[in-house]
Every structure is written in structure tokens, then in C-alpha cells.
Specification:
TIM Barrel; 2 domains; aromatic amino acid biosynthesis; DAHP1/KDSA; alpha/beta; EC 2.5.1.54; eight-stranded parallel beta sheet; two-stranded antiparallel sheet; globular; 10 helices
Length: 342
């Protein structure tokens, strides 16, 4: 038992100097960050779409995907704010399998987290500087957020982390809006407890010092479905679910109420093509009940260049090695469809 140091101590200040934003790229990020908070606060009525592969395992494929997204963003800029999912950490229930770019900068290579840090910063930096889009990532390890905090516009907290007190406390102090997913059980009260906690100020030990956070007024809900006691999917994007979430927001009087529908995971049962139908249903329900329109204005979609998935040893450029995703043709059509409701 015990810990064995296998690298030198990481100097965070040195890490942050590599791939640091400046000039036009920094101004572009600040502009998009402002657009994002205006959407979450209701000042901007556009839809928020966080979209991309389940995991960002191939830098060049992610860049090609981001370049295509940028063209769609420009065409639909009056209707949508598109933020690429560049997820570099993957949660693993039993610890097995591909854990993301941070662990394995080469998906079929050895674990090397020091090189992984550089790979994570580089991919986020390249998306911003080469396409003008800003990125989203998942806060799987709260302490690692310090290594990439200057490059992210949006942070998600996943179903397995949303009950963790450290995630909630860190979320209350970071600069990015934070989306809180409901847990795998589907219990909405857990998600709302997490949102409430992130919207408060807290004092705790972080990075070896006592800190006090300011609170995060842009913490909000992500509905991703859940599982019953027998492992059966229980979606939570239906009309009645949206009303329940609206009622809970009204009751708790949380700041900046906002809902994102995660269209894959337990909402689709990982049947990736169902994402299209799910979005169609949600948009139609918003049309039916206009009280939902200010609240339900976000989608989280799993999409890549090629549809489906492959094994880690696969050679298909732009195809997921984790959860299956929509392909590009369906993605472009779906984004255009969402924009037609804005």
C-alpha cells in the first residue's frame, strides 16, 4: 500500500505559460464567455448547444470536427451558441478502459499523465486559436482543473461526480458556468442540491491552502436520464419531466434557472440515433408550453465525423472509441433544425 512518486512535482505556473491565450484569441474567448453567461441569464434568447465526441481521443480528428462546427456556427450565429465538447477525461465505474487524453495522449499507447497535461492544453488551445470556438470539458478530477482553467468556457460535472462535496465546492469558485448532471439513479433532488451548493460561498482546503469561494451564479441543470433498480433506462426529457424541473427551480428560487437536455446516455439508452428524435420531442414540447421556453434552451449532443463507435485499435478517422455518436451529416442537419426553433 502507499503512493510512489513517478514524476517531479508539477509547477502549475509553468504549465499555464504553455499554450497561454493572448491577443485576438484571448479577446475572442472573453467575448464568447460573455455570450454564454448572457444566454444562461436570459439576456440572450439563443439556444446553447454543447456538442462533440464522447471523448477527444484524436487531436487531428477533433480539429477537423471543430473546423466544420465553426462554419455552422457562423451560419447560425443569430440562433445558436455552439460550444465543442472537448472531453479529455473519461469516468470509469470500475477503473478499466480508456480514461481519456489526460491519461493516454496516444489512445493505444501507455499511460503518461505528464505528457497528457500538455496534450490537453494543446487541444483546447488549438480549437480556440484555429477556429475561434471556445470549448467545454468535464471536471472529473477537481484538482486537475487548475491545469486548464484558463482555456475553458464551460465545465460539466458528470452523473458519478455530482454528489461529491469537493466537486460542488470547487464548482462554486471557478470562473466557468457549470452544468450539473442528475446522478445515474436519476434523482433530481441530488442534482438540485448540487446546483444549490455551487451557488453558495464555501470555505475549504484547495491546492494546499484555505480558500473562500465567491459562489457560481451560473450553475445549472443537465438532464441525462437514469437507471432503475433493474438497470432499465428511465429518460427524463419528456414533457412531465420538464414540468417537474421547472417546478423545482421555482420552489428553490435558484439564480439563473436553465436546463440542458443531454440527448445521449440514459436518455437515449446510448442508442445514438435516438438523439434526433429526443431533440424533436423537446422542441415540440417547448412550443406546446411557452412557459418552458425561457428555461429549456440547451442541448448536449454526442457527435463526431463518423457515426457509431469503434474499438480503441480501430483506424476510422473521426469515429468514437467510447460511446457511439451521430455522424457529421446528421449533426449539421440537426443543428439547422434546432436553429429553426429559435
Amino acid at each position: 500500500m502507499g503512493f510512489q512518486a513517478i514524476s517531479q512535482k508539477i509547477d502549475v505556473a509553468t504549465v499555464l505559460k504553455r499554450y497561454a491565450l493572448s491577443g485576438e484569441a484571448l479577446q475572442r474567448k472573453q467575448q464568447r464567455d460573455n455570450e454564454l453567461t448572457n444566454i444562461l441569464s436570459g439576456k440572450d434568447s439563443r439556444f446553447l448547444v454543447i456538442i462533440g465526441p464522447c471523448s477527444a481521443h484524436d487531436e487531428e480528428a477533433v480539429m477537423e470536427y471543430a473546423r466544420r462546427l465553426q462554419e455552422v456556427q457562423e451560419r447560425l450565429k443569430d440562433k445558436l451558441l455552439i460550444i465543442p465538447r472537448v472531453y479529455t477525461n473519461k469516468p470509469r465505474t470500475n477503473g478499466d478502459g480508456y480514461k481519456g487524453l489526460l491519461h493516454q495522449p496516444n489512445a493505444t499507447g501507455n499511460v503518461n499523465l505528464i505528457k497528457g497535461i500538455d496534450a490537453v492544453r494543446r487541444i483546447h488551445y488549438r480549437v480556440i486559436t484555429e477556429t475561434g470556438l471556445t470549448t467545454a470539458d468535464e471536471m472529473l478530477y477537481p484538482e486537475n482543473l487548475e491545469l486548464v482553467k484558463d482555456l475553458l468556457s464551460y465545465v460539466a460535472i458528470g452523473a458519478r461526480s455530482v454528489e461529491d462535496q469537493n466537486h460542488r465546492f470547487v464548482a462554486s469558485g471557478i470562473d466557468q458556468p457549470v452544468g450539473m448532471k442528475n446522478p445515474t439513479s436519476g434523482h433530481l433532488n441530488v442534482m438540485f442540491h448540487s446546483i444549490y451548493a455551487a451557488q453558495q460561498s464555501h470555505e475549504f482546503i484547495y491546492n494546499n491552502q484555505e480558500v473562500k469561494t465567491t459562489s457560481n451564479p451560473y450553475a445549472h441543470a443537465i438532464l441525462r436520464g437514469g437507471l432503475d433498480n433493474y438497470g432499465k433506462n428511465i429518460p427524463n426529457y419528456h414533457y412531465e419531466n420538464l414540468l417537474d424541473v421547472k417546478n423545482e427551480y421555482d420552489k428553490l428560487e435558484l439564480i439563473n434557472p436553465f436546463v440542458i437536455i443531454d440527448t445521449n446516455h440514459d436518455n437515449s439508452g446510448k442508442q445514438f440515433k435516438e438523439q434526433v428524435r429526443i431533440i424533436q420531442e423537446v422542441l415540440n414540447n417547448r412550443q406546446w408550453n411557452t412557459d418552458l421556453q425561457p428555461l429549456v434552451r440547451g442541448f448536449m449532443i454526442e457527435s463526431f465525423l463518423e457515426e457509431g463507435r469503434q474499438e480503441m485499435t480501430g483506424q476510422v478517422f473521426g469515429q468514437s472509441i467510447t460511446d457511439p455518436c451521430l455522424g457529421w451529416k446528421e449533426t449539421e442537419e440537426l443543428l439547422t433544425y434546432i436553429a429553426s426553433f429559435s
